[in-house]
């Protein structure tokens, strides 16, 4: 399925990054086939070590480095037996930095509360106590964060009197829903902060089209226990950052501001871009045509293997994406364009292709829970040569495509796209769990394998968010 819940720690001059590689498909499974790995580096920008395999007993691993120099792996434990709770509690086991492997026997230190689905463990030490943080309630609207503490690492752990630390469940009108799966950090100003997952629903069906998002809350300590500032457990919608963030040189400009554009003039494309499952490699080139990104056509947007697809997360409810494309398809089996994408089962695609009678055309492909339609049919005829400008606009639940030949006068395509389709919540209809939000990106297909390619001159993402 992919990588879940990475955990990053810094200890004794080295960064430790631990993560789960999930091999089980989504939905209808009995077992979780997972592999937990550890990589390390002296510099957070790399180079990183080769992965060290740790275990496969459950996901959401994290490392705790104790004051005595010993290190411990903590992860949830999965139980496939139907008479037991599937999420079987939190286990810990010692990790030997010298031998680069787990040693000793694992021990279950917390079986969970009645909220169940106990996962996402982290351990912190403060003022002589070990604090165990866990997510519970599942990742949907019952999500919450549980805190326990003990004088000894192995327990027994006592539950916080302020349980749960954070949750949205009692507050259906709170803009931040699904609050939970949190981690703790102390700021440079001496204050404490909680980073946690959440979702912001839209529409009558309360779909979170932006997927899982990260929020931050201030934490205070009361009678030796962490609490959200203000003495509540509901997440606050707004947070004032206490310190100016200093980014590594490689990240400068990536997180600053809401709008961004890549003209493909550099040796690397914008770090916001992601590819599916693996780097594009020879499927993409920034040198074949300087100033352009060339994508070599591969498999369809339904493929689990080789896609020539480069995309970035949708980060705002109101947004506009533009791209300029030059592409000369010779067959309807060659396509290139702009995709509004959730996964292989659900996506919208504004593409340039070729029809036997009409020549080069622009059309729309819609995939909703594996049901495929082409609302424009063959599509709209466009000149056989020259650039095409593509546009995607979104306003919460609704989105639409537009195109232009001259880059100035755009024609809106009369197909309203339901953006809620591209959400974790929509997948409840087929009882399948997903964890990503919507992506916007550029792609090229040549499903006949004839060597077709598309050139993109730029990609631009602009927020149209209404400020308060």
Describe the structure.
The mean pLDDT is 93. The chain contains no helices and 33 strands. It is mainly beta and 468 residues long.
Gist of the model:
The protein is mainly beta and 468 residues long. The protein is built from no helices and 33 strands.
Low-confidence stretches: none
- Per DSSP, what share of the residues sits in E-state strands of 2 or more residues? over 45%
* Straight-line distance between termini: 38 Å
Mean pLDDT: 93
Over the alpha carbons, how many angstroms does the gyration radius reach? Answer: 24 Å
| Secondary structure tally, helices | 0
Instruction: Give the proportion of residues in helices.
Output: under 10%
Tertiary shape: elongated
User: Structural class given helices, strands, pairing?
Assistant: mainly beta
Strand count, sense and barrel status of the largest sheet are: 9 strands, antiparallel
Q: How many distinct beta strands? A: 33
Name the descriptors.
seven-stranded antiparallel beta sheet, mainly beta, 33 strands, nine-stranded antiparallel beta sheet, 468 residues, 47% strand
List the helices and strands and how they pair.
Elements: E1 2-11, E2 14-22, E3 34-41, E4 52-55, E5 62-65, E6 71-78, E7 87-96, E8 101-110, E9 119-126, E10 129-136, E11 144-150, E12 158-159, E13 166-167, E14 177-186, E15 192-199, E16 213-222, E17 225-228, E18 260-262, E19 284-285, E20 293-296, E21 308-313, E22 318-326, E23 334-343, E24 346-355, E25 359-368, E26 371-373, E27 380-381, E28 388-395, E29 398-404, E30 411-412, E31 417-418, E32 439-446, E33 453-463
Antiparallel strand pairs: 1-2, 2-3, 3-4, 5-6, 6-7, 7-8, 9-10, 10-11, 11-12, 11-13, 14-15, 15-16, 16-17, 18-33, 19-20, 20-33, 21-32, 22-28, 22-33, 23-24, 23-32, 24-25, 25-26, 25-27, 28-29, 29-30, 29-31
